[in-house]
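Hi support team,

I submitted a single chain yesterday and got back a structure, but I'm not sure I'm reading the token output correctly. Could someone confirm the output below corresponds to the sequence I sent? I've pasted both exactly as they appear in my results page.

Thanks,
R.
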Amino acid sequence: MTDPLDRGGRATPGDRRPAADLLHREAPAPGVSGPSALVPPAGPPTRLSTISRATYLKEAGLKNLFLLCACVAVAGVLLIFLFVGYRGFPIFGKLGIAAFLGGRTWSPSAGSFGVLSLIINSLLATLGALAIGAPLAIGTAVFLSDVASPRVRELVRPAVELLAGIPSVVYGLFGLLALRPIIAKTSGGLGFGLAAAWMILAIMVVPTIAAISEDALRSVPDGIREASYAMGATKWQTIWRVLLPAARVGIIDAVILGMGRAIGETMAVLMVAGNAAVVPAGIFKPFLTLTTVIVLEMPYASGDHRTALFGVAIMLFLISMAFVASIRLISRLGRERS
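Hi R., thanks for writing in. Yes, this is the structure output for that exact sequence:
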């Protein structure tokens, strides 16, 4: 009988058996080599097992569960916006957008609900806190990612993360009882004002900015560091001229998130601001922000006063949306440039 496989191991043209049968030959006698030495498998050829119905239902259930979680998150944002908008938009129709946003006087007893001074105060408190806290946080991120030894990193990182877990009322107490007397003795005033708020908020934004900046620095490929060292750059030259520019998009995102953290802070600012609804004439003068006015006046507000406070909440919501949109825009521009 002719061998269906030629000397090269290929099937002859006249053979019509399946290829599996051609390969599953009987075991040769000892010492035999070549194409005829193919050993058959232990059993019949296996087939890919199909997905059972239970597995398919489980996969479909998990998919729907994750979809439900995403829908709940989106629905939560929409419900909050609709609730705040429903309660606050009538003030825009009654006073006008220009009068509400452009008015510098917030005096509910006199029927004046201008929030321009509150917006300016919130921005002053936020920008001052970032001017102090952002360099401190970025320096901490650089230290943790490229300078500190593993043992030191294990000590410093939990301490920085612990700052994020401290309640804001504790920060406020520290500012009220520790920082304010020092500022009062230095300035000759009461100690309330932007100076105390800047110091407290600067400490509070450090964990957010430091954590995200460290992730951005660690995401820079090691090859970039090695290339810089190979060209003769020192560690500090590599950090300043290579790593920070390479991670700038992530660092900018971190600063913007820190800005959102600062502008939305309420309790700590409430305890050190002094709560005067005017633009302060100096950093040691009392002031009032968008968040603190809601906390102070909502318990007893009614009528147009209450509606105006919901209008302030709308402003905070829009500012937060602007921060998130700017982060997404900067990230997209960074990806396009890279």
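A quick pointer for reading it: The chain has a mean pLDDT of 84. Let us know if anything else looks off.

Best,
Support desk
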